[in-house]
Write a structure and sequence with these properties.
Blueprint (H helix, E strand, L loop, with lengths): L14 H4 L6 E10 L10 E8 L5 E7 L5 E9 L5 E8 L5 E9 L4 E8 L2 E10 L5 E8 L2 E11 L5 E8 L7 E7 L5 E7 L4 E9 L2 E10 L5 E9 L5 E8 L2 E12 L5 E10 L8 E12 L2
Antiparallel strand pairs: 1-2, 1-20, 2-3, 3-4, 4-5, 5-6, 6-7, 7-8, 8-9, 9-10, 10-11, 11-12, 12-13, 13-14, 14-15, 15-16, 16-17, 17-18, 18-19, 19-20
Length: 297
C-alpha cells in the first residue's frame, strides 16, 4: 500500500477525488464474485463500468444486473470550464430516459437545472449561491407547484462550516439543521443532521492527519443516542471493518481485505461477514469485488 497518498475527505475537485480514486484514471470495470453457501467462488460478473474525462469527471456509467446484462446507461457532458451541463440516463428495462441540463449565470451566481422525463419537462430548479459557493436558496417549479427553500450558513475563522439551516418557505416543520465541530487541526470530528423528528449524528476519529474511524448514531424522540454503525479505515480511506448495530447491540460485522495496484487503487476486495446475532465465531467469505483500471497516458 502506498503511504505517500493523501485522501481528499471533503471539498473534492472532481469525481475521482470524491470517489477516493488516485491518479489519472480513464476507465474502471467492476466485477463481483459471490459465494453460494460454499467456499468456492462463483464466476465474476460485470456489474458496472465507469469512464472518466482527462480532468477527472465521470463521462459515462453503465450498470449491469446480476447476470451481467446492461440495465442502464448514463452519459454526462461538460462545458469548456469543466462544469456539468448535461446528463442522459437511459433505462433498458422500461426504455425510459431522464435528461438533466444545467445553465450557469456567473453574474447572478446562480445555476438552473432542468429535468426531462422522456423528453417532457418534469421540473426546473434555480439554485442561488453565497459565501464559499454554498447554496442559499433554491426555487423549484413542477407543473403549477412552486417550492422555495432558503438556507443560511455560519463559518468559523478558518472558513469551515459550523452551522447550516434549511427551511421551506411556508412550511414551519421543514427545517433541517446541520452543525459541525472541528478539532484544533480543523479536522471534522462531529456532524449532526437534525429534523423535527430525528437527529443523525456522525463522529470521526483521526490519526496522523487521516480518518481512522467513523461512528454513526440516531437520536430519536426519546433523546437517547442509539449506535448504528462503526466503520474503521486504512490510511487511504478504504473500509477495513464495519460493525452494524441494532438497538445499540452488535448485530453483524464485515471485514474487508484489499490488493492494490501501483497507483494506490484497490483492484481486489475480499469481503467476509460474522453474524453476531447468530453467535458466529468466525468470519465467512461472502463476496469478492475486483476492478480493472486503465489510466490516461
Amino acid at each position: 500500500m502506498r503511504t505517500d497518498l493523501q485522501p481528499i475527505y471533503s471539498d473534492s475537485e472532481n469525481a475521482l477525488q470524491g470517489n477516493n480514486i488516485y491518479g489519472k484514471v480513464k476507465k474502471i470495470e467492476y466485477y463481483k464474485t459471490t459465494f453460494q453457501n460454499t467456499e468456492k467462488e462463483d464466476k465474476p460478473v460485470l456489474n458496472k463500468i465507469e469512464e472518466y474525462t482527462d480532468f477527472g469527471e465521470l463521462k459515462k456509467v453503465e450498470y449491469f444486473d446480476n447476470f451481467g446484462e446492461l440495465t442502464q446507461t448514463n452519459v454526462i457532458d461538460y462545458n469548456k470550464n469543466q462544469k456539468f451541463i448535461k446528463s442522459v440516463s437511459i433505462s433498458k428495462s422500461n426504455k425510459s430516459s431522464i435528461t438533466q441540463t444545467s445553465e450557469y449565470d456567473t453574474i447572478k451566481n446562480t445555476s438552473e437545472l432542468t429535468v426531462y422525463v422522456n423528453d417532457t419537462i418534469d421540473h426546473k430548479t434555480t439554485f442561488y449561491y453565497g459565501k464559499n459557493d454554498y447554496q442559499v436558496k433554491r426555487i423549484s417549479v413542477k407543473g403549477k407547484d412552486t417550492t422555495e427553500v432558503n438556507s443560511e450558513q455560519t463559518f468559523n475563522d478558518n472558513n469551515k462550516l459550523i452551522l447550516a439551516t434549511q427551511k421551506e418557505k411556508g412550511n414551519d416543520k421543514s427545517t433541517i439543521t446541520i452543525s459541525n465541530k472541528y478539532d484544533i487541526n480543523n479536522n471534522l470530528i462531529e456532524s449532526s443532521h437534525k429534523t423535527e423528528w430525528v437527529e443523525m449524528l456522525s463522529e470521526t476519529e483521526w490519526k496522523d492527519g487521516r480518518i481512522s474511524k467513523q461512528s454513526s448514531y440516531t437520536i430519536s424522540a426519546d433523546l437517547k443516542k442509539h449506535l448504528n454503525n462503526v466503520t474503521a479505515f486504512d490510511i487511504l480511506y478504504n473500509t477495513i471493518n464495519s460493525k452494524e448495530y441494532e438497538d445499540s447491540k452488535l448485530h453483524r460485522e464485515l471485514k474487508f481485505d484489499y490488493e492494490f495496484d501501483e497507483n494506490g487503487n484497490w483492484i481486489k476486495k475480499n469481503v467476509s461477514m460474522k453474524e453476531h446475532f447468530n453467535n458466529s465465531k468466525e468470519f465467512v467469505p461472502i463476496y469478492v469485488d475486483t476492478r480493472k483500471i486503465s489510466y490516461w497516458k
